[in-house]
Structures are given as C-alpha cells and as structure tokens.
Model the fold of this input.
Amino acid sequence: MNPTDDLANSISAQASLVNELLTEAVRPHLVSAGLTLSMFDLLSAVRASGGRSTQIEVARRLGIAAASLSEAVRQAVTDGLLEQIPDQTDRRSKLLRLSEKGSKTLVKILRTIKAVERDMIADIPQVELDAAQAVLKKVIRNLARLSED
Done:
C-alpha cells in the first residue's frame, strides 16, 4: 500500500476533513452574525473559561501568543461583544467576559452548530455514534498526554 494512501485514510486526515467541512457549513452563519471564525473562537474561549479570564489565559487556551490576541480583543470590545473589567487580584490585568450582545451572538451560533451537527450525523445509528465518540475521547486523552510530555 502506498504511504500517501495510509495518510489519507488516517484518523488525523479524517478529523481534519470533518473540521474543514464543518467550518465551511458554519461559516455563512458566522458571517451573517458579523463574526469571523477567529472571533467565534475568541468568544468561545472566553465563555469556556468561565467568562473571567485574562487575555493571557484566553490566548493560552487558544494556543496563540497573548500579543496576537490584542487586536481581536480590541475589535470585540469595540463591537460590544466583550467587556474588559479590572482584575481585583491584579490591578495590572483586565479580565475578559462576554457582554450581553456577545453572549446572545454566541448562543445563536452554538444553536446553528448544533443544527449542523444534527444534519451531519443524520442516518448514523446511535451505536456507531457512541463508538465514534468513545474512540475520539481516547484519541483526545492520548494527544493531551503527548502534549504534557
């Protein structure tokens, strides 16, 4: 068998393709909500962090440098999607949290993603979905362990 065939059929390639197709299915909904994919990622990271994280913590969650996030944060604040509030424990830092508008926008997009996901898994038996989720959880656990080393 050709090594490139092995790669094309690998879990990594399949996961990448799912990500690419899901992104393309969701992108028009992001655009209609006035968001880019990177802005959606930023809002999602702030929400996932409990809504009270510093820019450094959010950048770490996104896997990018805090300085790279500065313009996106500034734009999100200008657009009324995020709020920066003083950190009571460190006066040099500001915490990021979703504004009401940001929260409503994110909830709308998350509902859209759920609808796309329902279409994505339509006609797949539950037993296969359960098996796929179990495998993906193990893959994620193994990858997380690798990145700790």
Notes: The CA atoms of residues 15 and 136 lie 9 Å apart. Strands lie at 53-54, 82-86, 94-98. The chain has seven helices and three strands.
